[in-house]
Specification:
The chain has 168 residues and is of the alpha/beta class. The chain is 23% helix and 23% strand. Helix 1 crosses helix 2. The radius of gyration is 14 Å and the shape is globular.
């Protein structure tokens, strides 16, 4: 798979977003990278590219965490959410819906392949049209970051449901 620089990858993801978006649907994108900072920068720039006036929010799920700090899908309404600021800072938000459904968002799931297979499926349903009341707003993008040197594995049925890219 050809590795893309951020600028080139932005254009490809925006095309995928346009093609996949519909009522209660967004885009599922898997990005292979060697560093989480690169994927975070991609998410920030994608948010700025989607909305020139005010960047859409970027929320972060850390798929490699376990125990009380883990992000299994069953707990997404119970724990504070992490929002990635345009300057790269991560801040904690509480209250309201765990992920807003009234406007498009970027949901960056770091170490997506480290989540349990049923959690990978559940997160994918947020943007694939099968999420029902949990679905994110049309035009949202879920970036499943597949970071180097992780022991995880992408759930087999998801491989054909999202777009796959590699970040240089």
């Amino acid at each position: 798979m050809k590795a893309h620089e951020i600028e080139g990858l932005l254009s490809l993801i925006l095309t995928v977003r346009k093609a996949f978006s519909g009522p209660r649907r967004g885009a599922l994108v898997f990005v292979r990278a060697d560093q989480e900072q690169k994927v975070r920068k991609l998410a920030i720039e994608l948010a700025q590219s989607i909305s020139q006036s005010e960047p859409i929010p970027v929320y972060v799920v850390q798929g490699h965490l376990r125990g009380q700090h883990g992000w299994p899908f069953s707990r997404i309404k119970k724990i504070p959410r992490l929002r990635l600021e345009p300057n790269g800072q991560i801040v904690t938000e509480t209250g309201g819906l765990i992920f807003p459904q009234d406007r498009p968002i970027i949901l960056l799931v770091e170490y997506f392949d480290c989540l349990e297979p049923h959690d990978q499926q559940a997160y994918a349903h947020l943007v694939d049209g099968e999420g029902g009341e949990w679905a994110l707003h049309a035009g949202s993008v879920l970036i499943g970051a597949l970071l180097a040197n992780t022991p995880g594995q992408l759930e087999a049925s998801l491989a054909s449901r999202g777009a796959h890219f590699s970040l240089a």
